[in-house]
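thread: overnight batch results

M.L. [08:02]
morning all. the overnight job finished for the chain we discussed friday. pasting input first so we're all looking at the same thing
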Amino acid sequence: MSDVTLDIGAWIDLLPEPTLVMNAQGTIVAINSSGREFFGSSVLNRNLSELVATPPEKLNKWLPLWQQATQMVPGTLRGHQGQKIEVEAVGIHHCQPPLILLRLFRQPRFLRQFILQRQQFQQLQQQMARQTALIVELQQRQKQLEAENRHLQGVSQQDSLTKLANRRAFETCLRSAWRESATTYTPFAIVLLDIDHFKRYNDTYGHLAGDRALQRVAHAIKSQVREADLVARYGGEEFILLLRHTHHDVAICVLERIFNYIRSLGIPHASSPVQPYLTVSAGICIVTATPRDCPMAELVATADAALYEAKRSGRDRYVLQTHPRVPEPVSSSQQIQSCS
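M.L. [08:03]
and the structure it wrote out:
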């Protein structure tokens, strides 16, 4: 801003009416305090056409006339609310090229209304900006909470050591499988599987080796079941399987694959009286649901009874039972023939 403009700015600041100084293109180069209150504080270097709703063609006629005037000439502008703004203008001819001094007529009531409306509009904009920022913040927080809830839900249903489902997840899936079986009249199987003489394994090789063995057995079991089946760690060295749409022969074939895979790992178990490598025993319960509520404890107890029988019969084998009947135990060696 030139010294001349600074002098004009200091002079017009003494005027009570809203007053501004423009160049021939209508760009504002100086404005007094009353003008800043009327038009807003950020008006310097803006064009008059941005502050009023007067058509550009009319402004383009006014500007040359005002620049050439040697005494105040009247004019009319139009506000954005459609109201008339009476003004008077004169050229400042000691500047080259001449500038334009534009002054609004004192209209207290109109000015107060105009300023009040502008202030209300600014307050509304600020309030909307704050609300928008709050909405964005709440949406981000909601997404964060949803992600945290999904993580917590996953953690709450997952065993931390083996990354299998945990007991809670198994119980939820068992209720669902029971309802499905009652509707479709198709059986499913529950398998309770236990690592043979695992306490001796821990005593011989240490608990860190025991944890690695649990992880390897968990992976072996998981790799031999179908995608729709569930494998969970039931507690300690026990695993529990939920095999959907599974008859006796299908359950037997799945268990044969699991047993053979674990044997093929050849995990040393020198303190086992069964084999020099790690083995497992299992109890299978074949279930066909009825419309009553899922008798979870009974089903698991049936599988557990079959597991007990497998251990009593020498381990490294499985026994199959049908809920609620309990047939003769069947060893794994006998089941190979049934599966082939």
